[in-house]
Every structure is written in C-alpha cells, then in structure tokens.
Amino acid sequence: MKLLLTEDEVMLQDAAAGFFRDKAPVTELRKLRDTEDATGFSRGLWQDMAEMGFSGILIPEEHGGNDMGYRAMGLVAEEMGKNLSASPFLSTAILAATAIRKGGSAEQQAEWLPKIAGGSTIMALALDEGGKHNPAKTATTATPSGNGFRLNGAKAMVVDGHVADKFIVAARTSGAVGDPDGLSLFLVDPKSKGVSTERTIMADSRNAARIVLDDVEVDGDALIGETGKGGEILDLVLNAGRAALSAELLGSGSQAFENTVEYIKERKQFGRIIGEFQALQHRASHLYSEIEVCRSAVLAALSALDMGLPDAGTYVSMAKAKLGNVARLASVEGIQMHGGVGMTDEFDVGLFAKRIRVAQEMFGDTNYHLEQVAQSKKF
Amino acid sequence: MSDLDKFRAETRAWLEENCPPEMRKPVKSDEESCWGGRNWVFTSDDQKIWLERMSAKGWTVPTWDEKYGGAGLTRAEEQILKQEMKRIGARSPLSSFGIWMLGPALLKFGSEEQKLEYLPPIARGEIRWCQGYSEPGSGSDLASLQTKAEDKGDHYLVNGQKVWTSYADKADWIFCLVRTDNSGSKHEGISFLLFDMTTPGVEPKPIKLISGKSPFCETFFTDVKVPKENLVGVEGQGWNIAKYLLTHEREMIGDIGLGRSVSEMAVDYMGLEDGKLPDPILRGEIAQAEVDDWAFKMTMMRMLSEAKAGVSLGAKSSMLKYYGTELNKRKFELLINAAGGDGLEWEGERSNDGHLARTWMRTKGNSIEGGTSEVMLNIISKRILELPGG
Prior knowledge:
The complex is a heterodimer of chains A (379) and B (390).
Chain A: H1 7-23, H2 26-34, H3 43-52, H4 70-83, H5 89-103, H6 106-118, E1 123-126, E2 141-145, E3 148-155, E4 166-172, E5 183-188, E6 195-201, E7 207-219, E8 223-224, H7 230-264, E9 268-269, E10 272-273, H8 278-307, H9 312-338, H10 349-361, H11 366-376
Parallel strand pairs in A: 1-4
Antiparallel strand pairs in A: 2-3, 3-7, 4-5, 5-8, 6-7, 9-10
Chain B: H1 3-18, H2 45-57, H3 75-87, H4 97-109, H5 112-123, E1 129-132, E2 148-151, E3 155-163, E4 173-179, E5 190-196, E6 202-206, E7 217-227, E8 231-232, H6 238-253, H7 262-270, H8 280-308, H9 316-339, H10 355-363, H11 373-384
Parallel strand pairs in B: 1-4
Antiparallel strand pairs in B: 2-3, 3-7, 4-5, 5-8, 6-7
C-alpha cells in the first residue's frame, strides 16, 4: 500500500484546492444559508464540478466518467471539507453512482451514469429511517404488485432528497426488521403518486429530506440488482460514502484546527499572545498529532478500496470511527480556544463544528463503526 | 535481470548458505540478543558465527562505507537485505547503541580519524557503547546538564554524574555530554566526549525500577582523564549532536510493538460470551485502541515513505514519539484490565515472572525516556505549529 501521493494525485489536489477556494469557499455556504436558497447548493457550481470531472470520478469512461477512483474521490472530498462546499457530490457522484455501477443493469448504467457524470441528474439515497444509522433496521417494505412492487415506509436524513431527480430507496422484500438480509434497492421518481418529501434544513445549513412512501407503485425494472440482494450493493455504496465522509472530515477538521492555530497566534490577553500559554500549546500539539494520524487512516482506507482488499470495509470503518472522534475534537477545541468569538456566527469555527457533527453522524458514528471493527476482528 | 534483482538473488543465496539455523528463531528476550563488546559471552556458537559472517560482509552496518566496516549498500539494497533476512526469519546479528546512535552521529559530526578509529570496531561488535545524557538534575531540561569537563591542556578532567545510562555496567565506552563552558546560555558550552569506561574514576551502578531489574544505571565520574582528541565536533557545540541523536532515538522509541493485537490478547485472558468480550465498556475501549493502533501504524508507514522520498522527518519524530508511547501505555492498561488479578502476578512460573505486570509498569517510562510527552508537545508547538514564546 502506497501512502504517498503520486504526482498526478498532487496535481489533482492542487486543482481541487484552487477550485473550491475560488468557487465554493465558506462565504458561499453563508450566502446560501442567509438567502434561504431553495436548492441549498449552487447548480452552477455543480455544473463547474462536472466540467472539472469531479462528478464522474467513480464512473467508467464508457459512461462518460474518468474513473479516477477512491483516492481521487478522497482528495476532492477533503478540499470540499476545508471549504464547507455544498454540492451533490456525496449523494449523486458517490452514493448513486456506486449503486448503479455496482448493482445496476446494463440498461440502468447506460441511462443514468452519463447523466450523473454530466451533472444533469441529481440522485439521493433514501436509506436511514431513524436518527441513528442502522441499515438492518430498515422497515420500509416493498411487496410484489402487478409486474413491479409497492413501497411503503418513511425515510429520514435523505441527503439532497428535496431536489433529487431520482431516489434510490432501500426497502425490505423479505426478513424481519433487524435482519441484515432481505433488502432491495429501487429507483423511485419523486413525483410518483404516494411520495411526499419534506426538506429538512440541518444544523450544518445543508439539505436533507424526510420522505414518506405511501403505496408507491414502481415497475419491475426499477429494481437495482436482484431482489433481496440490496444489502451487498449497499455495503459497497456505504463504504464509498463513509470513506468520502472521512476524507471530508479530515478536510474540515484540519481547517478548523488551522483557523484555531492562526487565531491563538494573534489574540492577546494579559498582555501576551495567548498562543504562548502552554495550556493552549499542548492541546494544539495533541490535536496536530491526532490529525496527522487521521491523514494516514483516510489514505489507507481509500487505498484499500482502490485495491479491492477483502477487508476494505473494516479499514473504512476504522477511518470513519477515528475521523469522527478527531474532527469533533478539533471543532470543540477550536471553539473553546477561540473563546467568546468562537461562539459568534461571524467566525467560521462554529460552522465547521456543525458540519463536522452532521458528517460524523452520517452513515454511522464512531460507536457504530467501533462495533463493526469489533465484530470483524471477532471480539 | 536488473542490478537489484541480481543483488536480491545473491543475497538470498548467501543468507540461505550462511545464516545458522539457531539464528533463524525469533528472539524471545533482550538476553538472547547479541550485544557484543569486550566482555560479551556468546550464548551459542551459532550466535558467534552469525556475527562474524555478517560483519565480514559489512552487513551489520550495510549502508556504512567499506572503510568504516560497512558494505556501502544503497538504501534500496539495504531494504532488500532486510526483506531477505525477514523472509527466513534471520535475527539481527548485533544489537548496538554504537550502530543505532553513536555511528550516525560520528558519520555526521566526527573527524575522519575518529570515524576510522571508532566505526569499524562498532561494526564488528568488538566495542559496546553506552550513552551518557541525562543527569539527576537534568531530565527534560537536558541542556541544563552540569557534568563538568575542565581543560587541562592535553586532556579534559571530567567530574559529575549521569543517570539512565542503559547498560553502563556492561559497556566498554561511553559517548557523553559534558559542560566545557558555563559562561554563555545553557545550550552553549556543551561538548560531546568519548571515553573508555575502564578509565579510573568511572563507576556505574545499576538502578532497580518499579518494574524490577532494568538495564539502567547511574554512572559517577570522579577526576576522569579524557584525552583531548576524544572530543567530537567543536568544543561547546555538542548540543547540535545531542539534538541530532535524540531525533534518532525518538524515531526508535515511537515504534514499540506488542507482536499481537490487544483484542487477541484480551480474548485469551477473558474469553468470549456470545462472541463478544464479556465487559462491554472495555470492549469499546479496546476497539478504539485497535483503531488508533492501526492508524498509528499507517502513519509510521506514511512517514517512512516520506523520509525515503527525501522529505526529512524533522520535528515530526516528536509527534511519533508522543503518540506511540502514549498509545502503548494505554494498550497495556487495557491488557491489565482484561487480565485482572492474573495479570498482576509479579513472580512465579505461571505468570512468566510477572511478564505482563512488569511490562505494563515498564511502559510508564516510555513517555518519559528520550524526552517526555510534555517536551514532545513543546517541540511540536514551537517547531511545527510555530507558536510563540518559551
């Protein structure tokens, strides 16, 4: 496993860093929030990201992508994390693209992957149902009906759900609630009869939605993969999503930390620059060490995915568990070390804290992933 | 076949031919390692043969120049040698502070005469070295050291006391930090001296630790005469050499392994109930430690690759030292938790003379020796984060 960036990767990193710094810095997120933007992200930005090739990063060339892989995905996500850039990158370019690429039929791939890569379609994964991520607890049902299925249930935390052109809905075709098997994935049009969508604005000023499915009828060709085999596809989808979130957390956590170090080099109290105080120096240095260790964890998890290692899922869980903790520490320490101004909306550190908390929760918090680690290591 | 492939094939053949079977078994304790030196008693003929053969090849110090007892290998060749030794489980032929610490310092700061005089006996395992750094009043604040070396014309007269001198009672020579000048700042006036431990006035005394027996000593110097030519580098500028060596030492201490994972050992101690460790809170803490351990190992790998690509580790070695030692302490606390009373047995065969308990106690020193965690955090603050003050 190579834990050094290649020259190509450094070039991509530089390009992504410049792109998000110019086009989607934190001030853009503030603007979207303060103008109560109906979309919650800039469609212009998403088009620009498509032109940069970011939307096709996990899509094969024959379907209009560049297939640069997971490490490249992580580099882009990290830069987005540093700038708190809002876009459908996670929902569409990672989650939906992986679901269709890994589970979809040739027809589904040919239809949807070019649209995702081109930035013309937004898709949302409707998986979680309660506050805590737990795919096995999926209660939404899909029962055979005519030549298709009838869906019933309620979904929460559906990222970009309020603007999606298509949902990918996880529903139970067999087994009881709590059974990890028996799930299937369906492409659902949000405009179908029986679908109601409520936009939920989250603490991080980003979008999610709650979706109710009330006797929603879908055709048989809406199924992604085989009936009851959705769990296997979901594993791949979630690994990609969790790895991207870990990379994003690395970006947000390290940026919150950099802002904090910069601040304690300027702020004076008791006639001294507060960064001279050892109480702050040691906490900053501890955080620095943790973030360096996180950088390796993220790179190793992404590499494991690229290499297709059989235990890549465990690597991803370890990275997500680690990043969840450390990014949270970076944000709460960041606020405390900023002092009073850390509590004001004017300073960015609070925005980082809110996004970090949401990203940490999404697709499994630290405890969820520690449990996965313990189970995979059989203890 | 490329040159490196050819080197690999030759190395593999030579090792197969020359590494005695006894030397392909894992080292179980410090006592089984070969430390060399004037008074060394080989534990077996195989140990002696292995050292002789390897040092004749220059492979105890493969990257050193041939005139200094090495083989002049490139980094890539050295890597191949390591891989091939690992492949057959070959032991390191020689454990040596001379190789790990003094050698690199002499190569960087020593005169040509000193290199020719001191390096070959290190490479052959003939002279065993110890390190005289810390003093009773100078631990974290090492630069405040007071062991005095007075200029007496053709020699220095050394008086003072060192502490934590590992294996001082077994070493032949010492490399030692002394104060040659008291007039400037504490970092100035420190010099780096080499002298024979059999010189009259040198007296080492072993220290017993909270973990029991230890290699550490206190070492006293009373009117020890050290020839002037034994000064390394410039008089009064020994602190630069000290700092260089401490960076080396920190890289080594950061890398402490258990061999097995905490969770595997905890399962041995506690067993499983319904496939899980029976204490759910401890189970969570162990899972967190496993994650941190993996992430730290990946970090060691990443830093090693960076170093190989020519990016100097610099102050990052302080980060590795801090993180690795704190993590190691945490892991042993968890192991003692898992083992309970059984893990606290101090003597007797059942506990292998309290192996776990003594190691647990010994790890407490990891975050003190070679620079405390607090000093490591100071270094990160100043040199990496560039925070003001101090």
